[in-house]
Write a structure and sequence with these properties.
single chain; alpha/beta; TIM Barrel; Immunoglobulin-like; 2 domains; 7-stranded parallel β-sheet; 4-stranded antiparallel β-sheet; 17% strand
Length: 419
């Protein structure tokens, strides 16, 4: 029996934590590869890695305050430095940071995903040698399997095995079917992502928020700034409103947002990440959560032909759940506005952050809202809940009425927007 993905589909929002030896240099998680740092020079950093300000409880508390439901922690990145007490290598942290994270998350009811790179620049033979020599490949794969076996045996149970760094092999080269079977024998309930060459239990679009077509469970992994691991020069932090937009996009596609932060070399969290994630969590508690969690598929896509249940507005994104339509008013329209194209009857409209009932009038598919506050009732994102007589559908075309003959929903040619 395949393990259930129900909890994952409902999770919606998680915290990704990239931390490792690279954090000491403050130039990103690929720094050893990008700068071709000699092995001895990089290995010498391990003596400086004390993680004196790494606080698993603080990280888990931040996830809870942010409204997240799971944490994905980097147990070993491509540099091969383990953040746990492995018996297979001396290239590891002095503390069992992975164990601390797992314990802290479990105490707070958070699900746990463990990131582990299949590639490994430190151990020999490495992936380059594995490409060049058959015997080296056999040893390289044996070492990879041993690491994974030790990891899921030491931390049992966890919820997700989050593979990464699958260069240079495909599923056959990684013996991915055998790899997953070995792990499932130890933890039958565990979920896999698709980064060992197999599709996995869910898709992991990186750096974009695109739901798979046809739909399957998915998770968009996005950085809070522009870097996964700590980069001292990267101050390009996403604002709370940008994260709300991303959450709405994921909610409309029944996907998850896995938002990454990169602790500094000493383990402390960048203040900007703490401030922004806390602000988004406060908004979720003020009323935003209802529009984000447990939502239905409610998408539109001008790049794709076929059925569309949703559409776009100038004021902000839309999500849906059952007979409710949620309008996330990222750009407040003033005292009145209208929503057109609804193929249902609206029965009541409420602003969730304040509880205010909104006056409206509906004629055909057009709902006219009147008497709105002149100033946005929430400083981040007011949310209007439109209670309808059936599951909402929104249909508009490029014309001022719906044609009575077969027609394209959007432009009938392959759009230049794809490039």
């Amino acid at each position: 029996m395949e393990p259930s993905v129900d909890w994952f589909v409902r999770a919606r929002y998680g915290l990704f934590v990239h931390y490792g030896l690279y954090s000491l240099l403050g130039r990103g998680e690929w720094v050893r590869n990008r700068e071709q740092i000699p092995a001895d020079d990089y290995a010498a950093l391990a003596h400086q890695f004390t993680a004196e300000r790494f606080d698993a409880d603080a990280i888990a508390d931040l996830a809870v305050r942010a409204g997240m439901r799971y944490v994905c922690f980097t147990t070993m990145h491509h540099d091969g430095f383990r953040l746990y007490d492995t018996q297979l290598s001396n290239f590891k942290s002095r503390r069992d940071l992975t164990g601390e994270i797992v314990t802290a998350c479990r105490r707070r009811g958070l699900r746990v995903a463990l990131y582990h790179s299949l590639n490994n620049w430190h151990d020999q033979p490495d992936a380059v040698a594995a490409l060049e020599d058959t015997s080296a490949r056999d040893q390289f794969l044996a070492n990879t399997f041993a690491r994974l076996r030790e990891l899921v045996t030491r931390y049992n149970p966890i919820d997700v095995m989050w593979y990464d760094g699958w260069w240079p092999f495909d599923a056959t080269g990684w013996r991915a079917t055998e790899m997953n079977a070995m792990i499932r024998e130890i933890q039958p309930h565990i979920l896999f992502n698709g980064r060992n060459g197999l599709p996995g239990d869910f898709a992991t679009p990186e750096g974009h928020l695109t739901a798979p077509r046809p739909w399957r469970p998915w998770e968009a992994c996005i950085t809070h700034n522009q870097s996964w691991g700590y980069h001292a020069g990267d101050h390009d932090w996403k604002r709370p409103t940008e994260i709300i937009d991303m959450l709405a996009r994921c909610a409309s596609g029944r996907g998850n947002l896995l938002l990454n932060i990169g602790p500094r070399g000493d383990g402390s969290l960048p203040e900007a990440s703490v401030k922004v994630l806390t602000a988004v969590g406060d908004w979720l508690r003020r009323g935003g959560a209802e529009a984000i969690f447990d939502t239905d598929l409610f998408q539109f896509d001008p790049h794709v032909r076929g059925e569309h249940r949703a559409d776009w507005t100038h004021h902000g994104p839309l999500t849906a759940k059952g007979r409710n339509l949620y309008w996330l008013m990222r750009r407040w329209p003033g005292t009145e506005c209208a929503l057109a194209g609804l193929e249902c009857r609206v029965q009541r409209i409420t602003e969730l952050c304040t509880g205010q009932v909104i006056s409206f009038e509906q004629r055909n598919g057009r709902v006219q809202l009147r008497g709105l506050p002149a100033v946005a009732p929430d400083f981040l994102c007011p949310v209007l809940r439109l209670e309808c007589d059936r599951p909402p559908v929104l249909y508009l075309t490029g014309g001022m009425r719906t044609p009575r003959v077969p027609h394209p929903h959007y432009d009938p040619v392959k759009p230049d927007l794809l490039y």
